[in-house]
Fold this protein.
Amino acid sequence: MKLKDKVAIVTGAGSGIGKSIALLYAKEGAKVVVSDINTIKANETVKEIIDSNREAVAIFANVSDDEQVQRLVDQTVKIFGTFDILVNNAGIMDNFAPAAEIEDEQWERIISINTSGVMRATRKALSVFLKKEDGVIVNIASNGGLQGARAGAAYTASKHAVIGFTKNTGYMYAKRGIRCNAIAPGSVETNIGSRMHDVSEFGMHQVRPGMVTNPYVGRPEDVAKVALFLASDDSVSINGAVIVADAGWSSY
Ligand code: NAD
């Protein structure tokens, strides 16, 4: 088992990629904190883990709320005595809106969850990791964090920022036993599109031609395997890096 007795927090673990990561980490011996704003879904993930005789708890936290993020980490340490792995997975899509169509409210919501949420959870995790000079952070970025037309401007900007933040954090704490890496998945079959509304016709029209160059729509489990690699000692020399997990889409 690659994560035996490690304590991992996975944000947005009620669905999709986060859920798959939580299940795989638990299978590999980690005690998993399944965090989400959707309590019903988080409890479903926990039940699956407990039914397979592994350990997990659900803790509600909206990553855009600093107090809730702080409580998430504090409660984790209280329950399990420590905390070793943070997976910043919670994220939302935009509606493919290009710059001229962005509404402030949507921009701020996306940046607050996709980017500031990663910063808040990382900042709080570091208060634990720095004391023990040990810890791993895995950020679920996106192909949209590297390419210009995989989503709208807000999502694209939010994920580019996550990649910059990952590199900076990885380097800053490299001598303190802490690693921070990101995964850039391509297109993955999840619920992320189900909450999309008022899709920009112009934005979608511009993005669509690139969609047909995608060789493969991935499964959440595919990304989870990369997240396991990055959380385990198998990737001990990898830090501040972005692993592209898009089946070759961005190499076109
Ligand atoms: P999903 O919608 O299936 O799951 C996301 C989970 O995050 C949900 O359970 C949701 O309740 C939770 N969540 C949403 N807002 C939250 C908040 N403010 N605080 C805490 N939890 C919150 O989506 P997914 O596709 O599994 O997305 C997971 C991550 O993967 C996201 O960061 C997304 O940007 C990234 N990603 C997804 C794809 C894709 O094609 N699905 C591609 C690249 C990157």
Summary: The first strand starts at residue 7 and ends at 11. The first helix runs from residue 16 to 27. The chain has a mean pLDDT of 97. The two ends are 36 Å apart (CA to CA).
